[in-house]
């Protein structure tokens, strides 16, 4: 044990941070990208027709219903999604039950509607922004449960890292704005502090809420003890704990007239200022057949849950879920909404994104610091020492993840549309790119790895809009003309990130050149001294 | 736009707080000495501005959302001030001239 409390906390901070550092970096980057998952989804499905507002809602609805009737007449749950700000298209979804003959598992199917023709678009099979986002807690190539456990463990260590970090940072207020550049390890420590302390509210919130979101897994034993083990018993717990407070009213609508159109008409009057994002036709054909309405605009942090329309006796009643009954569930909801940020408008969403990137940078600079502190004694002079291997893998992961994300996007555009398991192959592209980056770094010197990979990342992001233009009919100019803001925003963001990486590459190049010039200067001085004797 | 007003108040607040530290005061005004009087003036006005920004955010967006905006914008603003203090401290001298005039 260390003699003093602060030293103890320093030890804990170092090892809690280091042990899952790379996983945490992965979680931060993929999670941060997930704040724009809908926007990325749109880019990765270039075939869908974008529509901001429906001029002829009823004809579109009939077309959607017709398609659903043709594609999924037996399905018990239908959803039609209407255009919203982040998802400007019409989509139909249905629950397909497991079919033993065709060996299809139970799952949701979705199709995008072309509003002008009324038929569905054939969209390339893609993992989309959604998979990129879900990777931050499911991980990949491992069973979901393993992903949850590893993520939760990493998050707990992250929380320990945050709290110990605050404890050991003696001068947290004095050095709040301090960044002393060009001073070696001191600079790295300063920037690690900046990335940790300035977004501290975000980091604490995201870590703690992350733990809460996975508490069903980490604390499942508690549910086991009270309710019994197994899915059925756990479901009982969730039904009780997450009970909604519901307002029930009878409304003036004839039961025979209850249909998607009449429900939407009633909603338009009752909730004049809200946009409907989904309408669902649930448990079709059963006694409990009802319609669900979901809204796009949320009131502050609290999501307005579904409004349900059903026939009760000889009247139509609506059920409005306002909020959770239990106070624990309300607190959970609050943290869940803060974590997911679904309520955020575009500006707040970018702020969330930047804070997430700062978190990733916090972890990355922490790893770099750990490595640099162990190189003080020149341990990495030998290229195959453990510390130099770790250093190279570190660079491979820090820059490899952005490269992998770009590789994911390129895979979406370049993989042939008709190959089997296309979505899986897009994710394989992601991990192949990551692995290639790590291998590249293992073969190059540290300085060259940083420089080469920074330029490579800049290049690959710069070319992404070009790949878009070459492989689809979308381009930056085209998106401006068509008011396709999500496509445009994505392409422009790619250019912006390319610029950032290029700037970093230039800074590193100048630093290397200066260091090189200094070294040569010293060598010349030495030679002059020697020749003077 | 509401976010811009909030950003401005938070910027002034964090700027005052940074100037209340002699390390950063000397980055912005290299020849001058931070007097104790100015230190406390900067520090108190900085905290008051931060509080005002918080009240404004809660007034404008409600309690939870207001706090979210306050924290998020505070992060970005302090990051920008930090980077400016390190690389281009003279840019902040412009603001400082306005605030020092009243003291």
> What's the quaternary structure here?
heterodimer
Using the alpha-carbon principal axes, give the shape of chain A: globular
End-to-end Cα distance of chain A: 55 Å
Beta-strand level of the residues of chain A, as a percent range?
5-15%
What does this structure look like?
The complex is a heterodimer of chains A (533) and B (103). An 8-stranded antiparallel sheet of chain A has the order 3-2-1-5-6-7-8-4. Chain A has helices at 5-19, 21-33, 37-44, 57-71, 128-138, 144-168, 185-197, 200-213, 215-218, 220-227, 231-241, 260-270, 327-340, 346-373, 386-414, 422-443, 446-471, 476-481, 485-532; strands at residues 77-81, 90-96, 107-113, 244-251, 276-282, 290-295, 307-312, 315-324. Chain A has 3 domains: 1-36 and 145-243 and 336-373; 47-123, no CATH class; 379-533, no CATH class. With 533 residues, chain A is α+β, with helices and mostly antiparallel strands. Chain A is globular, with a radius of gyration of 27 Å. In chain A, 60% of the residues lie in helices and 11% in strands. In chain A, helix 14 (346-373) runs antiparallel to helix 15. The N and C termini of chain A lie far apart (55 Å). Chain B has one domain (2-101). In chain B, helix 3 (36-61) runs antiparallel to helix 4 (63-87). Chain B is mostly helical and 103 residues long. Chain B has 5 helices and no strands. The longest helix of chain B is centred in the middle third of the chain and has 26 residues, at 36-61. Chain B is elongated and about 45 Å long. Classes of the chains: A alpha+beta (533), B mainly alpha (103). Chains A and B meet through helix 14 of A and helix 1 and helix 4 of B.
């Amino acid at each position: 044990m260390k003699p003093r409390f602060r030293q103890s906390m320093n030890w804990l901070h170092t090892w809690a941070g280091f042990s899952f550092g790379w996983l945490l970096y992965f979680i931060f980057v993929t999670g941060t990208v997930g704040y724009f998952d809908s926007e990325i989804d749109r880019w990765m499905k270039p075939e869908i027709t974008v529509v901001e507002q429906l001029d002829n809602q009823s004809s579109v609805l009939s077309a959607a219903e017709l398609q659903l009737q043709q594609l999924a007449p037996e399905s018990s749950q239908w959803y039609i999604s209407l255009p919203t700000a982040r998802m400007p298209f019409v989509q139909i979804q249905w629950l397909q039950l497991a079919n033993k003959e065709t060996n299809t598992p139970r799952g949701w199917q979705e199709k995008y509607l072309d509003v002008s023709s009324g038929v569905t678009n054939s969209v390339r099979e893609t993992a989309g922004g959604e998979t990129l986002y879900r990777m931050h807690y499911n991980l990949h190539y491992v069973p979901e449960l393993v992903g949850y456990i590893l993520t939760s463990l990493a998050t707990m260590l992250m929380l320990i890292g945050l709290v110990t970090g605050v404890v050991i940072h003696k001068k947290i207020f004095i050095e709040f704005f301090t960044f002393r550049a060009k001073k070696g390890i001191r600079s790295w420590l300063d920037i690690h502090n900046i990335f940790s302390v300035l977004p501290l509210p975000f980091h604490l919130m995201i870590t703690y809420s992350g733990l809460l979101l996975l508490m069903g897994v980490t604390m499942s034993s508690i549910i086991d003890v009270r309710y019994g083990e197994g899915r059925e018993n756990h479901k009982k717990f969730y039904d009780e704990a997450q009970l909604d407070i519901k307002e029930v009213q009878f409304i003036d609508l004839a039961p025979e007239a209850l249909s998607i159109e009449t429900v939407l008409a009633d909603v338009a009057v009752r909730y004049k200022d809200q946009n409907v994002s989904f309408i669902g036709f649930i448990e079709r054909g059963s006694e409990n057949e009802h319609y669900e309405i979901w809204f796009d605009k949320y009131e502050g942090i609290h999501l307005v849950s579904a409004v349900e329309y059903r026939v009760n006796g000889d009247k139509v009643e609506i059920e409005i879920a306002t909020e959770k009954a239990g106070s624990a569930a309300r607190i959970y909801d609050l943290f869940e909404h803060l974590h997911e940020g679904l309520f955020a408008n575009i500006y707040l969403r970018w702020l969330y994104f930047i804070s997430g990137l700062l978190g990733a940078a916090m972890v990355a600079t922490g790893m770099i610091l750990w490595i640099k502190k162990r190189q003080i004694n020149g341990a990495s002079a030998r290229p195959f020492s453990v510390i130099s291997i770790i250093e190279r893998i570190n660079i491979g992961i820090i820059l490899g993840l952005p490269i992998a994300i770009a590789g994911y996007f390129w895979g979406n555009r370049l993989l042939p549309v008709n190959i089997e398991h296309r979505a899986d192959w897009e994710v394989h592209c992601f991990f192949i790119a990551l692995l290639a980056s790590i291998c590249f770094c293992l073969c190059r010197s540290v300085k060259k790895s940083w420089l080469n990979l920074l330029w490579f990342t800049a290049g690959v992001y710069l070319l992404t809009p070009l790949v878009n233009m070459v492989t689809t009919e979308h381009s930056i100019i085209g998106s401006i003309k068509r008011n396709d803001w999500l496509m445009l925003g994505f392409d422009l963001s790619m250019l912006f990130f390319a610029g950032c990486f290029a700037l970093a590459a230039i800074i590193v190049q100048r630093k290397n050149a200066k260091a090189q010039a200094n070294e040569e200067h010293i060598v010349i001085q030495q030679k002059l001294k020697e020749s003077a004797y | 736009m509401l976010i811009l007003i909030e950003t401005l108040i938070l910027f002034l607040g964090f700027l005052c707080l940074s100037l209340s530290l002699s390390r950063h005061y000397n980055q912005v005004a290299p020849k001058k000495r931070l007097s104790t009087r100015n230190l406390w003036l900067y520090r108190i006005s900085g905290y008051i501005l931060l509080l005002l920004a918080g009240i404004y955010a809660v007034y404008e967006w409600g309690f939870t959302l207001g706090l979210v905006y306050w924290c998020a914008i505070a992060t970005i603003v302090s990051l920008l001030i930090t980077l400016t203090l390190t690389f281009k401290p003279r840019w902040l001298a412009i603001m400082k001239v306005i605030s020092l005039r009243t003291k």
